Write a sequence for this structure.
C-alpha cells in the first residue's frame, strides 16, 4: 500500500500570501494518478487538480500542482478568503485509492 | 451536470448492517465512468471504500473488503453500499462519487451514519 504523507499539518497564512502544500508518497506514484482536493467544513471534497498538474473544471488559475515520483506540491499563489480549508492529496495504485491525512490552511 | 444523492438510515446498531444508496441524476450510471464510495469519520480524513463500473466490475479497499459489497442498478440509475458487522469505528459521513480519470470529480453531499445502540 502506498502511504501519502502531507505537510505541514496546519499552515497559518494571511490572505494574499502564497501557500505551498507538500504530499510525499512512500513509493513512486505516476503523475497521472495524483490528485488534490479542497474540503470546507460541512461540505464534500472538491476536485482541484488531477494528473498532478491539471486543473479541474472551474478551478481558478491561482491553484497549481507540480511534482513527480514521490514528491508533489499544491501551490496557491495568492490566498483568497474562500481558500481557507483542508486540502487532501490522493493517489491511485493497484485498483485502490488512498488519501493523505490532509493539510489545514487557516487564517493567521 | 451529474448530481449524486446519498440516502439510508442515519443510525445503525453495533454488529448490524449499514446500507446506503446513491441516486444519480443529470447523467447515466451506464457511461464508462466508475462510481465510488468514500467515508470520513468525524474530524478525520478521507477513506476510499470501493468502486463499481456499470458492467458490474468492482474494486474494494483491502482493509474493508471482507465486510463490504458495492452494487449497481442501471435501471434505477443508482448504486449501493452494504457494510456488515459495523462497530463504532464505522461512524462516518459516507459520500458517493463519480470517478473521473483517476480521481473523484463529482460528489454527493454526504450522509452521516452513526453506529450506536
Amino acid at each position: 500500500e502506498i502511504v501519502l504523507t502531507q505537510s505541514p499539518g496546519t499552515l497559518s497564512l494571511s490572505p494574499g500570501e502564497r501557500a505551498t502544500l507538500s504530499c510525499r508518497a512512500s513509493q513512486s506514484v505516476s503523475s497521472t494518478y495524483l490528485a488534490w482536493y479542497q474540503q470546507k467544513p460541512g461540505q464534500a471534497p472538491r476536485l482541484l487538480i488531477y494528473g498532478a498538474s491539471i486543473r479541474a473544471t472551474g478551478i481558478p488559475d491561482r491553484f497549481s500542482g507540480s511534482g513527480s515520483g514521490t514528491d508533489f506540491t499544491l501551490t496557491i499563489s495568492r490566498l483568497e478568503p474562500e481558500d481557507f480549508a483542508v486540502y487532501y492529496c490522493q493517489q491511485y495504485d493497484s485498483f485502490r485509492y488512498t488519501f493523505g491525512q490532509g493539510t489545514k490552511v487557516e487564517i493567521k | 451536470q451529474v448530481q449524486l444523492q446519498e440516502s439510508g438510515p442515519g443510525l445503525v446498531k453495533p454488529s448490524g448492517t449499514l446500507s446506503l444508496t446513491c441516486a444519480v441524476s443529470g447523467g447515466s450510471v451506464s457511461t464508462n465512468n466508475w462510481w465510488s464510495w468514500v467515508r470520513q469519520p468525524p474530524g478525520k480524513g478521507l477513506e476510499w471504500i470501493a468502486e463499481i463500473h456499470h458492467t458490474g466490475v468492482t474494486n474494494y479497499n483491502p482493509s474493508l473488503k471482507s465486510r463490504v459489497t458495492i452494487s449497481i442498478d442501471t435501471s434505477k440509475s443508482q448504486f449501493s453500499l452494504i457494510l456488515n458487522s459495523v462497530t463504532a469505528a464505522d461512524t462516518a459521513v459516507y459520500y458517493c462519487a463519480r470517478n473521473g480519470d483517476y480521481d473523484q470529480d463529482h460528489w454527493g453531499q454526504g450522509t452521516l451514519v452513526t453506529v450506536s445502540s
Chain B touches chain A at residues 36, 38, 45-48, 59-62, 95, 97, 100-105, 107-110 (CB under 8 Å).
